[in-house]
Automatic annotation (TrEMBL):
UniProt protein name: GMP synthase-like glutamine amidotransferase
Keyword Disulfide bond: no
Species classification: Bacteria, Bacillati, Actinomycetota, Actinomycetes, Streptosporangiales
Organism: Nonomuraea soli
GO cellular component, one term: cytosol
Keywords on record: Glutamine amidotransferase, Transferase
Length: 225
């Protein structure tokens, strides 16, 4: 049993998820020339990065990643798209992603579960939770059939499910304080770094159970295969 992971840049890796999932991960690094596979293993995670989801010229592996995501959702492979990964899911399935009108969303920010999340296998019971954010593009129209699960003050589309086993989250449940500070190093955002560090216990409390639940979905599907 294995999870395919698409990593878009060295500073945006699995972070917390590496230890939380408890399932071996095959990390594909297309920015180093590694080819994006046509099919995922027993699960699929697509991580974040500074690319815009539509910038195929600057990041030539994005079309193959969108194809991989579309096949995974169609095949019922448990799928988890994070930030850029969520935006790629959205484009792959016919939604819209564009530069966000509300500007950069960055730091430790609250996200709130909607009533639809009450019965969700990953996000049930979260209520309002703190999450690491770092994005300026936004999912402005979700794919047909998507169920919005979480919202936020700056951008309303924070998490959704499509099908029975594919999730997209705009925020970064994988991001440790160290990862976040690597993203802000050039911008002098020490106050944001400190806030994320102070939020670490709340981040772990909120998102480690979500990772554990996703791993359980992967195991369940693998057992049925």
């Amino acid at each position: 049993m294995r999870i395919t992971v698409i990593e878009h840049e060295a500073d945006a890796g699995l972070g917390y998820l590496e230890s939380w999932l408890g399932i071996p991960c095959d990390v594909v690094r297309p920015y180093l020339g590694e080819p994006v596979p046509e099919r995922a293993a027993d699960g699929l995670i697509v991580l974040g990065g500074e690319a815009s989801a539509w910038d195929d010229a600057g990041y030539p592996w994005l079309p193959a990643t969108r194809d991989l995501l579309r096949r995974a959702v169609e095949d019922g492979v448990p799928t988890f798209g994070i930030c850029l990964g969520a935006q790629l899911v959205t484009l792959a399935l016919g939604g819209t992603v564009e530069r966000g009108a509300a500007g950069l969303e960055v730091g430790a920010c609250p996200v709130t579960a909607l009533p639809a999340a009450d019965a969700d296998r990953l996000l049930a019971g979260l209520g309002t939770a703190v999450a690491v954010q770092y994005h300026q593009d936004a999912m402005t129209r979700l794919p047909e059939g998507a169920v919005l699960l979480m919202t936020g003050a700056q951008y309303p589309h924070q998490a959704y499910r499509i099908g029975s086993s594919a999730w997209a989250v705009q925020f970064h449940p994988e991001a440790t304080p160290e990862i976040f500070s690597s993203w802000t190093a050039a911008g002098g955002k020490q106050e944001l770094d400190a806030a994320v560090k102070a939020a670490e216990p709340a981040l772990v409390a909120a998102w480690q159970p979500v990772a554990t639940r996703f791993a359980a979905v992967v195991r369940e599907r693998a057992a049925e295969a």
